[in-house]
Design brief:
By secondary structure, the protein is mainly alpha-helical. The protein has helices at about 5-30, 35-55, 60-70, 80-105, 105-115, 120-125, 130-135, 140-145, 150-165, 185-195, 210-215, 240-255, 260-270. The radius of gyration is 20 Å and the shape is globular. The N and C termini lie far apart (about 40 Å).
Amino acid sequence: MTSLDKFLLFGMTPAIVLAALVEGWWLSRRQTYDWLATGVSVLDLVVRLLVNIFVPFALSSPVTAWAREHRLMDLSLDGWQAFLLLFVGLEFCYYWFHRASHRVRWFWLNHAIHHSPNELNLSAAVRIGIFGKVTGTFVFFGPLVWLGFDAKLVGIALSLNLLYQFWIHATWLPKLGWLEGILNTPSAHRVHHASNPQYLDANYGGVLLVFDRLFGTYVPERADVPPRYGLVKPILSHNPLRVWFTTWGDLLRDLASARRLRDVLGYLFMPPGWRPGMGLWQPVPQRDAPEVAARPLVGEGLPTP
């Protein structure tokens, strides 16, 4: 474990949790605050760290090994050009990883955990999901290894990218003027986490929104459409097993109902919500569709899980 690894694990991780708890205390003095959801998010963080430390293999490992073996060159951070290449390259790979995590059901299985909180706050930022190694998400960053960057370095750069994204989960921060549409801001990320039809599948960037602008997935926050957070089909339980395994159970039920290989592949690799007979790709959500009825607040009229 390098000194930077130790700093991220033993320095920044406790600081992030502390900041989330301080925000929770501050918000709870002004509004209803879901402390149980925060507990689930912190547990998700702890379990994910344990998985990353003690599980040596990931589904993406063969791809990473192949990319390392056939790399085009050896690249190190020995100048600003290499830093810039790694930063922009990571942003590009992260954009497609994030977009696929919403539009390919196999990757959505883990990413849905991050979108499961029905309140957006700093604690939601640490609920990333514990199945990243199972679903093989690092495969999207294999091109950087193939280009010549060390896989460990790419992993650290990705951690720093996610560290930047921690603060943009604060809903009490306003729009940031001319930075909107350039940087990933709290306003842009509110849109990303919203389940309103107008906001679905938008703003995938990590630090920058340049590739969202380039590929047509940038959607600004609208004053007349307050974001409604959580999944389209919300998880209202605070049971971490339900949070982690609901999407997997849904997938297994769909696979059990499949009658053709085409249907099996569709359930695995088409967008969430795909059904046989829908064609190759689910239509892009209509962001100008009328509003749907609001969901009940967390715990409202529901039995304790």
